[in-house]
Design a protein that fits this description.
This protein is of the alpha/beta class. The chain has one domain: Spore Coat Polysaccharide Biosynthesis Protein SpsA, Chain A. Helices cover 37% and strands 16% of the residues. It contains eight helices and nine strands. The strands form two sheets. The protein has a seven-stranded mixed β-sheet, sandwiched between helices. It has a two-stranded parallel sheet with strand order 6-9. Strand 1, helix 1 and strand 2 form a beta-alpha-beta unit. Helix 1 runs parallel beside helix 2. The two termini are 30 Å apart.
Length: 275
């Protein structure tokens, strides 16, 4: 029988072990460099993979840049939204198109380097959990370039709101490097409603609600000052989207809560050190 380590990426012919979803909005200046880094990282692995870039209605030629860059890489494909729908919508669309056993979501700027993917995979395979999310809060010494102080303080306030409205005990829900087992978490993605930057807490809330386990993993991270997050506009939207999670839960708009798939003692969030 062919073992997983013997599966080498062969483009569209192989069923992927890993799908990588990259949402992109007006990323023409940096997406090419990021996709090249992802390509070379995956090329060094022996498992089959695919990369799905979701262009979220960009107006700066992002789709053209992506098409040119990935032309020689058959395991990469581009999906285009008809208009700007938001990061949450784009991630959801990409994940629901994915075919891999595992699905990784990463920001287009690779603020959390792609070479940390193996650590997330190892965490899920060693624990049987359903999602492993990168965290900047567990080992802050791993942050190379910090956000401006007002952004970091805003993030702390946002996390308080997330805990209040969703009950999640996670320290950092917003880091742009997350890995999921595709089949166990698909229902959560299907029921996501948030389409903008506030989608992460809703998604993680739904994974736990559907009986899934989430691990929080400390990762290296460097702030990119060219972020697309607008503090005034997007912060208000994000807080509203988190509050709406609570409302939907109260009014029965989500699937009924399921028991976690393992014993309570094993379900505690596991915090892995960097490897």
């Amino acid at each position: 029988m062919m073992q997983r380590d013997d599966l080498r990426s062969t483009g569209a012919e192989a069923t992927p072990f890993l799908s990588v979803v990259v949402p992109a909005y007006n990323e023409s200046q940096r997406v090419g460099r990021s996709l090249s880094a992802i390509h070379w990282y995956l090329a060094s692995k022996t498992f089959a993979s695919e990369v799905i870039v979701v262009d979220d209605g960009s107006t700066d030629g992002t789709a053209g840049v992506v098409s040119d860059v990935i032309a020689a890489w058959p395991s990469f494909r581009l999906i285009r939204n008809d208009r700007n729908r938001g990061k949450g919508y784009s991630v959801r669309r990409g994940v629901l198109e994915a075919r891999g056993e595992y699905v990784l979501f990463t920001d287009a700027d690779l603020s959390a380097p792609i070479d940390q993917t193996g650590m997330l995979i190892a965490a899920l395979e060693s624990t049987g959990a359903d999602a492993a999310i990168g965290s900047r809060a567990l080992q802050r010494e791993l942050i190379g370039v910090h956000q401006p102080l007002f952004r970091e303080l805003g993030g702390i306030c946002f996390n308080v709101a997330v805990r209040l409205f969703t009950g999640l005990k996670l320290r950092d829900t917003q880091c742009g490097l997350k890995l999921f087992r595709r089949e166990p978490t698909r229902l959560a993605f299907e029921h996501m409603k948030a389409e903008r930057f506030g989608f992460d807490p809703e998604l993680l809330f739904l994974i736990e609600r559907c009986g899934g386990r989430i691990l929080e993993i400390p990762v290296r991270w460097d702030n990119d000052p060219a972020t697309k997050f607008n503090v005034l506009r997007d912060a208000v939207r994000s807080f509203r989207e988190v509050a709406e999670v609570r409302w939907r839960a109260i009014t029965g708009q989500y699937p009924a809560r399921q028991r976690q798939r393992v014993a309570a003692a094993e379900a505690a969030h596991v915090r892995h050190g960097s490897r």
